[in-house]
Write a structure and sequence with these properties.
about 400 residues; alpha/beta; Aspartate Aminotransferase, domain 1; 7-stranded mixed β-sheet; 3-stranded antiparallel β-sheet; binds glutamine; globular; about 15% strand; Aspartate Aminotransferase, domain 2; 13 helices
Amino acid sequence: MSRNADRFLASRTAGFTESVIREMTRLALRHGAVNLAQGFPDFPAPEEVKQAAMEAIAADINQYAVTWGAAPLRNAIADYYRRFYGMEVDPDAEITVVCGSTEGMIASLLATVNPGEEVILFEPFYENYGPDAELCGAVRRPVPLRPPDWTFDLEELRAAFSPKTKAIIINNPHNPTGKVFTVDELMQISGLCLEFGALCISDEIYEHIIYDGATHVPAAALPWIRDRAIVVNSVSKTFSVTGWRVGWVIAPPGITASIRKVHDFLTVGAPAPLQQAAAAALRLPDEYFHGLKSAYAKRRAILSAALLEAGLALRPPEGAYYILADIRPLGLGDGDALCRRMVEEAGVAAVPGSSFFRESSAGAAWIRFCFCKKYETLEEAGRLLKEGLRRL
Ligand code: GLN
């Protein structure tokens, strides 16, 4: 960009780049590579959900919904939290429907965090949280999750909290590591939030994609932090509709009022007909959610085996649909260089680990593959990697 253009730019945009995850999708398209970078399915969304969207458009639900969400969807969200977690959420005062959890997270931060306040993030962290914090003028305080099991050190976490801490962001299940926070860990985190008067903002978009009998505990289900828990979620991953951009935020009434204001002026509202269809999706029978888990367990097995065979090291994730693989056994340099060569020369796109760390060198040993793909896509990626990595 020329110097002349630079002088027109706001300094709040200077500290971050465009998303590398989404750049890798563009590179995959350019090189005709199998895209295991950006996490979106290549298989169809559930038939009933698509049908509900088509019916909503045909029924002319095509104008703005109530800015904070159509009542049928907010009621479906409240019923869903009662059904899965036994939680009572007030659809009139505690739910904001937003354009995907991406908007949910930034609207929540803009509604609560003042410039100069600190936001704690577990590192590695999902790419968006860095720019989200910067756009609020917040100071990021990363706390490491350490391999192999991605645990944190309680003393290190405690040391990150201070009177300046406004919030901690957790992502549970966690992208990119696949960690599912244990109840003990949630107790520790919530205890610190109480002690330091901080919010707990929890991105729970992978809540149903968990393995080996793991259970999900929403942050807002911990009664002692209900007054400071913000849960961000969406239909994107659970119903394989990442392009719909329908999500929601659950927060106590006073915080919800502020999030609704921000949301109103950012986007007015999420797509009205898709809100109707999202309500139908949330009411799908239990078999749908069981089927989702077992299909993802199979995809996890296919990709894990393929990556191990191609010479990478990994620990199967406990949740979400990513494998953060250790590339050191390959001896092919750092993750950035490897991802760029892999997409061109091996025909498989992944995301460099550096995208999930503040200091990019900290992520050099890792690359992230997603497995939200048809079994045959994953098998094809496995073949390409096995041959391609040998040639690199
Ligand atoms: N969450 C997905 C990922 O990590 C993609 C999100 C997005 O691009 N909006 O790949």
